[in-house]
Amino acid sequence: MNRKPFFLLCAIGLVLGGCTLAPKYSRPDAPVPAGWPTGAAYGEAGNVSGTAAEIPWREFFPDERLQRLIDDALKNNRDLRLAALNVERARALYGIRRAELWPSVDAAGSWFKERVPAEFSTTRQRMTVEQYSVDFGIFSWEIDFFGRIRSLKDSALEEYLATAEAQRSAQILLVSAVANAYLTLAADRERIKLAEITLKAQQSAYNLIKRRFEHGIASELDLNQAQTQVDIARGDIARFTQLAAQDENALNLLMGSSSPMPNDFLPAELDSVDPPRELSPGLSSEVLLYRPDIVSAEHRLKAANANIGAARAAFFPRISLTSTLGTASTELSGLFHSGTRTWSFVPQILMPIFDARLWSAYDVTKVEKEIGLTQYERAIQTAFREVADALAVHGTVDHQLSAQQSLVDAVARTYRLSTLRYERGIDSYLGVLDAQRSLYAAQQGLISLRLGKLANLVRLYAVLGGGSV
User: Within a 13 Å sphere around the CA of 75, how many CA atoms are in the beta-carbon half?
Assistant: First the structure.
């Protein structure tokens, strides 16, 4: 067999296979300001040593119990496991596309037997024709002259990379969800304690007023007003107990374990939680470009760009090659004897003349690229808004906490004075009742603000891309 044409076509295919007709890709400009918002709500954005994405979650969350919960969730959570399986699937699909660039070598065996009537036989006698063959070689290998297969391979690679970034996004979401559920549980347990303390105080006040009522000193109105505060506190205990149980259920779901968490893994109150470390976004919004969801959107944009190359290549000829070496014989026993060797060399070219579907397919790839570009820009704008919102909370929450703590202290003093004035007969119980309500509401508001500050630190860490390492 003359192998020169075969090796010549292979060499040309390998040289030209590195070329594609895909447009040259350049990263689009980010459709957001270069710096973070400024103003009274934001304070000053300081510099940090490294971005949030470079800070491991173990360093950001110093609380050891929370670290154990996050670690177990990363091992057992089904959503994260599904994301990992999607990455493996995308990797395998990329392997299939990449393998199409190279010829596949196969072996084929066949047995042919046919009865030929006399009138169709060259000998004018009916006969039976029998043939055995074994062939070894390349069957229908498309030589990628115009980069169609390479463009599809590049698209599959970008899809794989996008899926890998989606897994990182899933991990960030899981880490922040576990931390938020943990903090919410701590806050609800603290609310239970506050409601129990309030109930105890209200019950004591009710018992005192009841004795005064029995001796004719207090009115029935005072007794009923005291009873309402006792009932409100009892209802709040039941409500916060329900919320705490639901918080535990949410944590169990995130953990993905088959048994409930031990109680020593759970916080008793917010004061028992080691708070997350302080974090600053730096001065430039460019850090958003490294967020996994934005990187994933850019990879999908690159995949759409590569698909344009494949659509363009479809307008050009396709060259395929079949080349085999083998042996053939009319008898099975003589299949591998000398003189039975066969070979074939069959190059084939397919030139599209008229196919309206090719133009429509090309238009589809161009529109898909525009869709990918829009999704990429929208992802950046959404990320900028998320960081800006978190910074607005970060810049004002300490002032809110200071004001709320001052309010709690002032209302507590008012409550003590109102109680003294009632006991001395100066004022009615209505003043004590209003002070009790205001103090309880202010204390609950303080818990909510403390939870909000910690939860916003978690959110700021997540929206800056932290939690994937």
Answer: 8
Domain boundaries of the chain, sorted by first residue: 15-101+146-316+357-463, 104-143+317-351
Q: Are 202 and 230 in contact (CB under 8 A)?
A: yes
In the beta sheet, which residues pair with residue 322? 346
Cβ–Cβ under 8 Å, residues 12 and 145: yes
Q: Write out pLDDT tens, residues 181-224.
A: 999 999 999 999 999 988 888 887 778 777 777 777 767 777 78
Rounded to the nearest 10°, the torsion over CA 195, 201, 207, 213 is -110
What is the C-alpha to C-alpha distance for residues 444 and 192, in angstroms, rounded to an integer? Answer: 10
Phi, psi angles (nearest 5°) of residue 143? -85, 120
Query: Two tokens at 172?
Result: 């960030």
Taken as a whole, the chain contains a residue count of 469
**Domain with residues 15-101+146-316+357-463, CATH architecture:** Up-down Bundle (1.20)
pLDDT tens-digit map of 384-410: 999 999 999 988 999 999 999 999 999
Coil, helix or strand for 189?
A: helix
Quote the pTM value.
Answer: 0.81
